[in-house]
Structures are given as C-alpha cells and as structure tokens.
Amino acid sequence: METIILAVVIAVVVLGALGGLLITSRLKKPLPPPPPSPPSKTDLTAPPAEPHVGDEAETPRDEQRRTIEEVDLPGGGAPTTVEEPPAAEKAPEIEIPEPSAGRLIRLRTRLSRSQNALGKGLLTLLSREHLDEDTWEEIEDTLLTADVGVQPTQELVERLRERVKVLGTRTPEELRGLLREELLKLVGTDMDREVKTEPESRKPGIVMVVGVNGTGKTTTTGKLARVLVADGRTVVLGAADTFRAAAADQLQTWGERVGAYTVRGPEAGDPASVAFDSVKEGKEMGVDVVLIDTAGRLHTKTGLMDELGKVKRVVEKHAPLDEVLLVLDATTGQNGLVQARVFSEVVDITGIVLTKLDGTAKGGIVIAVQNELGVPVKLIGLGEGPDDLAPFDPEAFVDALLGD
C-alpha cells in the first residue's frame, strides 16, 4: 500500500514539473504589435514638409511656411541686372595722316642735322683768302666724299672756279648764294617730280614699287599710301612680295591704319597673279590708286629680275603702269647706283625714292643717282615715323645742305 502511494506522489510531481516548463516557454514568445492608433485632428490639418534634394529618407523638418500674400511678386522689387554680351573686337581706328604739302620744309631741321657737313665744308674752303690748286682739290674731295659722283663734281668745280674768279671779293653771303645757285643747277629745278597717280582717261592710277630687300621698300609703300590718303585719294595695296610672309602682314597693317584695302596671295605664290588681282580689285572698288609692293631679293640673280619683268607685263594687261618707283637706301652710296642701273634695265624706272636720308647718308647721292639714270628723285625718307616720307623739294633740300 505504501508503495502505491509513493508511486502516485512521484507521478504528480513529474506532471507538475512538465506543466511548469510548458508555461515558461509560452511566456518567452514576443507579443504581437498593438494596432495603430487613429490619427489626431492636429495631424490631419498640418501637411508634412516637402522633402529637399537628398532628404527623402530623413524625418520631415519643421519649416516656417509663407502664405501667398507674403511672397514678393515680379515688378515690386529692384530691377534684375542682365549681363551684356562681351563687345566684339573693335576694328583698328583709321588715322588721319599729316598733309604732304610742305612736309620737307617741316622736316628741314632733321635733314640738315646730318647733311649740312657738305655745305659747311664747301663754304669753309671757298672762304679762304687764296684759292690755290690744293684748295680746289680739297673741294673736289669734299664733293666726291659726299657721293656727288665724278662727272657732277667736275662740272660743279669748273663753274665755281669761273664764278669765283669773276666775283673777286667774296663775302660769306655772296659765297653762300653762289654755292646755292650751283647746287640747285646740279640737283635740278626743272625736273617733273610729281608722283603720277591720276591718269586722265582711266581709273585707277597704277604704281609699282621695286627695290632690294633692306632698303625700306615695303615700309615706303605703306608710307606712300599715307601720303596719298592725306591728299584725299583712295588706295588699294597689292602685297606681291609673296616670298616674305612678314612683308604682306606689314603692308596690311599699314593699309588698315589709313583704311586702305590690301590684296594678298598665298605664301610663295605667284607675285604676278597678286599684282593682277590687285589692279582688278582696284577697278571694281573704284579707287584712285593701286600701289603694288614687289619682291626685293638680290638684284644680281637674273631669274628674279626676269620675274619682276613678268609682274610688270601682267599688270599692263589691265592698263599701263603710271609710275615705277625705285627705292634706294641713301646710306649705300655707289652700291645704290649699281642697283639702280640693273632695275632700270628691267622695268623702266620713272622715279627714285631715297630712304634713310636722315642717318649717315651723304646728300650728294641725290645728284649722283639723277645724273646716272636721268630720272628724278621724287620722294625722300627722313626717319622712322609714319609721316616721315616727303615729296622732294630741291630748294628745301639745298638749303638743308648749306645750313642756316
């Protein structure tokens, strides 16, 4: 009996333990989430703030919101500043060149600064009390050193001998007047020195500029354009020196400064073609003058001189040339005369332009080159300034040689 009771007690204990374990495991399971509570009235009337860029995942922020009455409407505030587009590049300003009339007289001081050694030397020698053979030889040497040339020197000395012998007493004023007269005869006052740019029966006038590189040929062409514009002419420039790109650029710059149009071709192109096109363009535009700058490589190369002759022939298919100006560097002396001879044989020079006459040049070159070619000096260059090219005036030139 006792055994049965013990067994029942053990069974009750075991059942109780199993029941406790089952209850504990149920208590450890998570409870289901409570149902959502209904929204309040406040939440319904206040709309959430709009998300900003990149703010979609953030909690909406409280922002101060404005009503439509508080927003500034267009027209009520300061005007909006609109940025103007950058201005286009301005064309170069057209310059007004100095009138050509009287230029040489205005530049007389600059000319006499380097030229009056000839005049002063002659006056000093002629003022000696006794003019013996040695003195006359010194006078000859002075003239030859000044690049006057052998034949003109002999002519001048012979005339001076005769007139001084007849004059007898020689005051400084008489000697100066005497020398001035004789120098004017040599320089020539009866030569036509006008640059021909106005043919009677047609338009435009055609001027070709030739010379050796380094004499200032391209610069002279540009300065001559300024002289013509200053005198009221319209000009087209032809950059026929196609062998130097810098020459075409330089000539175009000169043209732009005075409003002259420049015709140019491809580098190393045919110079005759550019010259032809320049005259054609000048005709179509109705300008007064066409200036053609040509190549100026060494004059000793026969092929290049033939090419210059070709340019002349091609241009004359349009119309005859009115001027062929040879540019000479006055400081080269007798070498300039050699150049003049060669060019004159090819293109029939009609006028001389002497450049750099304000430097170490000796004024006698004017007499020598005219005597050599029988062609007048028409223009002279007296400096680096744009308006330092002047029409040649024999009287002003001789006065500058003799000084004040």
TrEMBL record:
Leader sequence residues: none
EC number of this enzyme: 3.6.5.4
Entry keywords, A to Z: Cell membrane, Cytoplasm, GTP-binding, Hydrolase, Membrane, Nucleotide-binding, Receptor
Biological-process GO terms, alphabetical: SRP-dependent cotranslational protein targeting to membrane
Cell compartments where the protein resides: Cell membrane; Cytoplasm
Catalysed reactions, as listed in the record: GTP + H2O = GDP + phosphate + H(+)
Keyword match GTP-binding: yes
Membrane topology summary: Peripheral membrane protein
Biased composition (Basic and acidic residues): 52-69
Amino acid composition bias (Low complexity), ranges on this chain: 79-89
Domain SRP54-type proteins GTP-binding span(s) in chain numbering: 376-389
Catalytic class of the enzyme: hydrolase
Domain of life the protein comes from: Bacteria
Region described as Disordered: 26-97
Biased composition (Pro residues): 30-39
SUPFAM superfamilies registered for this protein in UniProt: Domain of the SRP/SRP receptor G-proteins, P-loop containing nucleoside triphosphate hydrolases
Function, in words: Involved in targeting and insertion of nascent membrane proteins into the cytoplasmic membrane. Acts as a receptor for the complex formed by the signal recognition particle (SRP) and the ribosome-nascent chain (RNC).
Family statement drawn from the similarity comment of this UniProt entry: Belongs to the GTP-binding SRP family. FtsY subfamily.
The protein's name: Signal recognition particle receptor FtsY
Lineage, top ranks: Bacteria, Bacillati, Actinomycetota, Actinomycetes, Kitasatosporales
Gene: ftsY
